[in-house]
Amino acid sequence: MALLSALLIGLVFGAGIAVSGMANPAKVLNFFDVAGAWDPSLAFVMGGALAVTFAGYRLVLRRPAPAFDIRFNLPQRHDIDAALVGGSALFGIGWGLAGFCPGGAIPALGLLRPEPVVFTATMIVGIMVAKAVQDMRRRCS
Question: How much is the average pLDDT of 85-112?
């Protein structure tokens, strides 16, 4: 049941990305082009997502446990370290250059265009490299 729930949530998320136009990298890149063809719609999509998330967390966290797990898996760390800053910077640079973030690229794979395929493949390689570096650092410490 948990897998089915995850699938349905992913489908709703992907549909929202597609309907809002955020699977189109040109629309995202136009948001960053404040001196040219600026398109503020990304700000409205993000604002709507923040509002839904804020309300959802307030409602769901009143429960003693999630529906398909024994406890909530919330972040335990609140510090800002080099890995967080570096990862955030790489995410932003990649998003600004490609016009895709993972949330927009995965639904865009369904368009069968090469851009989201290349982005997703390089993202997976980046994840694998980051994991290998983390593992190597753990072994050396």
Answer: 88
User: How many angstroms separate the CA atoms of 104 and 21, rounded?
Assistant: 9
The domain ranges of the chain are 2-140
Over residues 129-140, the pLDDT tens digits come to: 989 998 998 999
What's the CA gap between 108 and 124, in Å, rounded? 16
Strands (DSSP E) found in the chain: none
Q: Which amino acid is at 48?
A: G
The answer to whether 116 and 100 are in contact (CB under 8 A) is yes
Q: Is the pTM of this model over 0.70?
A: yes
Gyration radius of the chain's alpha carbons? 18
